[in-house]
Amino acid sequence: MRKYTLQRFSDQPILTTQDVKPYGVGFDVLGAFNPAACRFGDEILLLLRVAEAPKPENGWLHVPIVDTADGQSVLTVKTFPEPDGPYDPRVLTLGGQTYLTSLSHLRLARSQDGIHFTIDEQPFLFPARPDEAFGLEDARITRIDDTYWITYTAVSANGPGVGLAKTTDFVNVERVGMVLPPPNKDACLFPERINGKLMMLHRPMVSDIGKPSVWVCESPDGIHWGNHRYIFGATGSAWEYLKIGAGPEPVKTDEGWLLLYHGASEQHEYALALALLDSNDPRQLIGRADAPLLTPELQWEREGFFPNVVFSNGWVSNTPAGHPGEWWVYYGAADSGVGLAILKSQ
Q: How far does CA 34 lie from the centroid of its chain?
């Protein structure tokens, strides 16, 4: 496996929470992070995860939920007394039910140079189904022919599953639906059919046995998915001891499918690394990193809504397919902003 370096473009984020206007009335933006990325025409597009929550009130928690009826999405807020003592700022269990303290949707950001972005004020994808009631998270974009397939995590009271949508113009979007039920996330499609099939990486979540790991499945039509196969999991190294998951869509090189993935330590610190899958049969692992290429080091990567995180689900290749070269990697930092790093082969 060829050696690579992943260097930050600068020591500052390219997007921050303050750059994004809230969509919900009376809401605050808690984070704008973990973007999908692609080229579309002469632009680079990011599909940001924007997490919003009602403005806080002393002694009370306001939990946002989307109710859907007759094809309409209605944003509602449940109010609970603030728990005594410390609690997870992201997740609450109250009255036997688990809630998210914020609601995420997916919003487009556009750039001519890949560095300076303008951010749409309206969501591109907003929760519209019962299985999306708690939000849409961490999209990936894969272009196959002239269609851009978007995988995302759809969250509800029944857990996180894999939602799928598609567009040809980033104006009109068609929801395929939830294609992998809970609990599952970190899904991305390969950018071409392999042996006539669409193929998708995903990460089932486990409880009593095993740890979350990277799997692959296939589909004839993008709707029906099967033939699931484990590819690789956490090695037990400290930086990826807890879990791993696939990042953006794999890129085809002369060595095989290059995959950017994340690992989480036992202390929930997230880092980025690379793996290589066989070109003809991506169920076969050729090689993988024995150390991360990027770890949270800068203040804005270590401090935020969820600290000590670098997490990527979007990159753009700057070289022709099949050639070693350079990729621009967009990564979420501490669930609060977006950084840019340059991946180069040595």
A: 5
